[in-house]
Amino acid sequence: MTSQIFKQFAAIVVFVFAGVININAQQANADDMLQLVAKLQRLEAMQPDCVGPKYQLALQSLNYAVMNPYAPQTENVIAQAEEAINKMEKMKGADQSDLCTLRGFLFMVRIVQNPAQNGQRYYMDVLQNYEKALRLNPNNALAQQLQQKFLEGMKQHTN
Amino acid sequence: MKHQFAHIIIMLFVALSAKSQTTVSGVVTDGREPLAGANVFIVGTIDGCLTDSLGRFSFETTITGEATLRVTYMGFDDYNLTLSPSHPLTFSPSHPLTICLHERATAIDEVVVTASTYSFGKSDNFKTMNALDVVMSGNSCGDIVASLQSLPGTQKVGEDGKLYVRGGESEECQTFVNGMHVLVPYSTNTENTAVRGRFSPFLFKGINFSLGGYSGEYGQALSAVLPMETTDMATSDKFGVSASLVDWNVGGTKVFTNSALSFNAALTSMGLYDRLFTQRQDFTHPYRKLSGEAQYKKEYHGRGVLKSYVGYDFTSVGLHQDERHLSLKEHNIYANLTYKTPVGRGYTLFAGIANSSVFNHIDDAVSVGDHYCNFRNEVHLKVELRKVCNSVLKVQAGIEDYIRNSTLRFAPYRYNLDYNLLATHIDAQWRMVPKLFLNVSARMEMMDRHCQLMPRATLSYIPNKRWQFSLVAGQYSQTAEDDILAQSNKSLCQSTASHIILSMQYKSASSLLRIEPYYKKYSHLPLLHNGIYQSDGYGYSKGVDVYVENHSISSRLSTTLAYSFNDSERLYMDYTQPCTPGFASRHNLRLTAKYALGKFIIGIADSYATGRHYANGTTPYYNSLDANITYLLSPKVIIYSSLNNILGRTNIFRYDAAGNGITSSRDRFFYIGIFVSLKNNKAYDISNF
To answer: What is the ipTM of this complex?
Structure first.
């Protein structure tokens, strides 16, 4: 049910912003991504009881952080993502697989920020959260992609 | 005419459009400095913008009449400005708004009072340290007790290796796993040989080492408590092996739909090591320990969590000393079962049961031909109810029971001791005003109809995320050791200690500074009077602990400094006058550094302690320079090596009755181990189990 809500909401979000901002995080510049996060925060304020906006807010916040790990706003954006995830955890409709994906992504961002210090500290949390996300929902495409990216990164680092 | 009409229409549209587009502009500050990146918007719309580096914002909105302007910024309270038709939006660039945000007061369930406590692991989200960091600094060789001795407040007592905290005996520090008491948290060894902790730090997701001033939940500890929480349920199957000169391990986990079963088996033997490297002691039978552990965890669809643990150790060692052929055997079994579940209306219920059984058999313990047999057993039962009432109040209350039995046969001396200790506690954590927190608790213990009430309180001022100031005061109690209790025929009342601690902490993204002066006053300590123990002993311990952690020099380098000053005196046991106990050293310093270089992680540590005082002299200072190196050979193979006391200094821990210095069996200790993952796509997981 939640996944359905997520999908519908995600479609709306994409529709609303597609013409305004290039949603592709790989190409978007930091300011655009930050503006997107701010707009999602406004959308979240419009629908405080919905899981979907919180999911998108957390996801795009982490997207920003992983692309801009050392930007001045990054710590605030990560804290915002963490807050959104914590709120989702308390909501009955939240999808556990999506929550695990976000938690794994959060740890992954911390590793990207400081691989030397945080790699050994959090790599297991990243893997375990993605594994759990995929166990709960084997079709969770985001968890699959993030897990694959993380394993590729680990392979490069350890070989 | 048509053109004129068209012009009028266009003009009307332009006019209407111009009227409906209102520009909102201003500046956002925290009262002193502008806030960059604050989100300013009209509630219910996506009209808004982020403030620039000077805190300025400007955006257009079509909203007129009643509306709410909101400003949000992490760590600050939301700002809301409601505009009614009588006060419509009349912003313009010539009348910018000046908005001042106030820092958000921490909610009661978010606040973590750090006074006198060192937390590792991720029970409190992202910590600057975790168990791995501590273990890899210096050369603890995976021993949790040795790891914790890198912290201020702990003292180096090399002849037994146990935790001695702030001038207190090792027995004054008690260990809890998932809230349940562990009677004997150490492995065993012969006299004057350092022991290790029974548990691996990697079993736990959270380790909270409290050096005093702990809440009412914990009792039967005069100085410190070490509560540890086991990891959450594993998400995938694991299987791994490790081997070193002294130990061999195999461990794995099988994951089911909502549960996981883990096992671990280990054999520790000093036989090979003793043959390769010389030592001072004459072991007739090398130290050997066979361990087996199992865990079962089950999650009930995000509601309750069941955790169970059972561990068994069999230790044996033989030593030739002064005509004696000492032979030591110990069986130690510990099991616990806990269940935690929300029960509605914001309440959380916790229930647990734990059993510890330790059987010791020593031949030639004191003289040739004697036999020492000791059996100790403890059942710990606990029920607790916790509730976060609102953002300013959190309460928890519980009841627990310790059922203890101890028998000793050491001819001609023998006893059979049974006693029951019932305890109840209530804790309330209250945010009095924003930034000021009060934690009040009371613990009542009843033993043989003797009742003891112990009030405890912590007042904390947390002005922001960087600073924290706390004043802690409380009373703590503990029964005497079984031997003493039995000798006194249970007539001894509980020993008590009053703690007063002042704590100051500064924490930034890359550094941590903590300074904690403390004072402890002991009463009713067991004191030997004419061959009979009485509760007349007393003492004090005062000092200051300083801890500095830094990551700012390089992202690859982390350094720590832990310094403790301790001044303590007590009159207890067989002392004839108050004096500094033999285990206490006045100054303790430990410096550590850890550097990550590609696939290598290099750790180095130096420990220094001033001499300890004995009736027949003062020992020289203690110093040990240790190093370790970790190498990721392949994604599934890790090699770890460490060398203890690189400089080879012969440290004298204390003097025996004849005035001979007691030293460790060897000055240096070398360790090398290989860890291999046989399953899964990741490096060896030390927490395979």
So the answer is: 0.75
